[in-house]
Amino acid sequence: MRFGAAVLRGYEDPFAIEEVMLDAGPADGEILVRIAGCGLCRTDLAVRRSAGRSPLPAVLGHEGSGVVVETGGPDTGLGPGDHVVLSFDSCGRCRSCLGGAPAYCDRFAALNLFGGRTENAARFTDGAGKALAPRWFGQSSFAEYAMVPARNAVPVDASLPLELLGPLGCGFLTGAGAVLHSFGVGPGDTVAVFGAGAVGLAAVMAATAAGAFVVAVDRHPERLALAERFHAVPLDAATAGLPGRIQRLTGGGAQYALDTTASARLINDALRSLRPTGHLGLVARLRTALPLEPGTLDRGRKISHICEGDAVPALLIPRLTGLWQAGRFPFDQLIRTYPLADVNEAERDCDAGRVVKPVLIP
Questions:
Q1: Domains of the chain
Q2: How far apart are CA 315 and CA 126, in angstroms?
Q3: Which of 7, 132, 140, 344 is most enclosed, with most CB atoms within 10 A?
């Protein structure tokens, strides 16, 4: 089948809207999905910084949502017409997957980032019949259609705004999962979130929904205004004595801090903002050495990296849509939609901080 997609041919090239082709229907365990919307995530854009590692040309996009068109085999648990949110790929067989931690799958990098593919996956080609890289994050959903493993697809209520749900499969999942799963935040807890982008604001909303007191740190006034709308105390990242200010606001230090910035300065500020036994989670990939200042890990404090919010998507995504329906996780307020043809404009707006979460509509 032939359909339109945004193809990235070079690490410094703009996306190009092209006709692409899948040479076969769904294999056993796969589904064909008509994409209703796909979030543009900074992980998609990070391909440009990892030149040579993620293979090109490729169709990116890994926050897709859509309608099942066709299924392969009888055991997918899904059928034509089902509404689904697509999430990251995993093997389903390794020790981590079997232990309920698919984000730490032994094959996570190969399947999601570096061109791994299953033996029976359909061949993905451009309009001239030349091969494109295997599907990105099991999806390649900057397109009108995507062929995905059924285990990556989470069914959702057909009454939900399907075109807006894709970011629940990665960015919003990561922020909310860090708070609800990695930290296990509950009523009366204190949380400091460093970086009020899509992941950070999802963490703010989830922490507020859990009954926590939340402080949000960022350098963009408009992002801080959003955090305040979601009931966080906003603090400019340049505030003098920032850790002391957070400690005073939280009555002796935050129990949990989440850093989405990968800034060494802010990571050290986050550690100094913690109370004894506090936990700092990092979700952004570090690209430089991280020198920790003396004393930051004293008194039982700890630091860990969190991938995909430590989430099992099939469990967390329905929880988040339920919170949205109850008015307690208003992720739609972070979204601006763009036609898929305007993917380069969406990328520029994302890079410039003019939009929190772009969603592309085929």
A1: 2-169+330-361 (3.90.180.10), 174-308 (3.40.50.720)
A2: 36
A3: 140
